[in-house]
Amino acid sequence: MSLRSCGFSGALLLPHRKKLGVEEAHVNLMSIKILHLSDIHMGSGFSHGKVNPETAINTRLEDFIKTLSICIDRAISEPADLVLFGGDAFPDATPAPYIHEAFASQFRRLADAKIPTILLVGNHDQHSQGTGGASLSIYRTLVVPGFIVGDTITTHRITTANGDIQVITLPWLNHSTLLTRPETEGLSLGEVGQLLLERLQPVIEAEIRRLDPAIPTVLLGHLMADRANLGAERFLAVGKGFTIPVSFLIRPELDYVALGHVHKHQNLNPANNPPIIYPGSIERVDFSEEKEDKGYVMIALVKGEVQWEFCPLPVRTFCTIEVDVSEAEEPQQKILDAIASKDIRDAVVRLIYKLRSEQLELITTTALDEALKLAHSYTIRPELVSQLARPRLPELGLGDTLDPIDALEAYLNNREDLKEIAPDMLEAARKLIEAS
Ligand SMILES: [Mn+2]
Questions:
Q1: Does one domain contain both 28 and 70?
Q2: What's the burial of 352, exposed, middle or buried (CB within 10 Å: 0-12/13-18/19+)?
Q3: Whether residues 276 and 144 fall in one domain
Q4: Rounded to two decimals, what is the model's pTM?
Q5: pLDDT along the chain (436 residues), means of 10
Q6: CA–centroid distance, residue 39 to ligand 1 (Å)
Q7: Residue 4 belongs to some domain of the structure
């Protein structure tokens, strides 16, 4: 695990400026340095770790803490003038106290170093669709010096060591944020999304109109943008919330758009006017992020000029080993060869092999365990090829007649990946059937 160097001078030239008065030049000579990170999801993926016997803590929590601490170290050593967290601190709004404490003790170091910090509220931070508050609101209640909790659409003017900056916070929006229940009744999810977007537009316009045009401006939003290349969050796009067109975010008033929500790092506006950046998650949350680099973004900003750089983090390797041995004469050896072909040391490994039921007795699990023992953790999933051909929904046998809702329910019961949106889908289906 090597960390690519991420050198960053942060000093910006001011090529397009008219001649500056001495005083003005003094103020503008240094750029404002921002560290932008997002989607920490601390407390996720414990099944990929194990309990550290020395600390009694799950090793994946230790991984997440270590990665977050590298981000905070960087903010302090730079030093950053401002830290922007793009939302989704934990897997849900009610993390176990020791997980919340681990998160707080890292961010507390920013308060100690007097680095202003904005904690934006993401969908995973809201308790019961936002009506139960947010896990991060505790920082406002405690009045942590320099900390702002972004749980409303507001513009914050922040004074930093290198000048003032304004940040528009746009937390995760759900249906109850800008719409009332009677307004959404009978509407499809798509129509609700459209209505929400229509409501959002003037609210954002009002914020933009109030901006001070002389100082740098950042929009910090937790949202699903329509051009985003989806990582682990791809299922959340369906039914949960709505997408915002990237064109909505390309505004001359904005110098940088700092996003959270999508776990895959990307810039949605290669023209960089302004850069629209998802830094992505700081650790791999699950196997869907196996091939993604993880990191944070450093930004140097003066009004009208921005430089940004993705800084990779040395995160835990995830490794999928998939092998079909159903036609192999020595299936065990073929599996061992597949394992040997990968660098599994300290990695989270999943071994998936396909075989015929007659081959089952040719596989010795202890030999596989031995071959995988260098991994940090591993799972082994044999898949029987004969089983693969089974009816996709065994509950729907011949002769059964099902009404459409029962059929959909049976289907959803077989789709673990749709579990989160299953109630929404069933509700939408009921409405459709009632309307027809
Ligand atoms: Mn999110």
A1: yes
A2: middle
A3: yes
A4: 0.81
A5: 47 40 48 97 93 93 97 97 96 91 95 96 82 80 88 95 96 82 81 86 94 96 86 50 85 97 94 96 94 96 94 97 94 96 96 93 93 96 74 53 78 82 87 75
A6: 7
A7: no
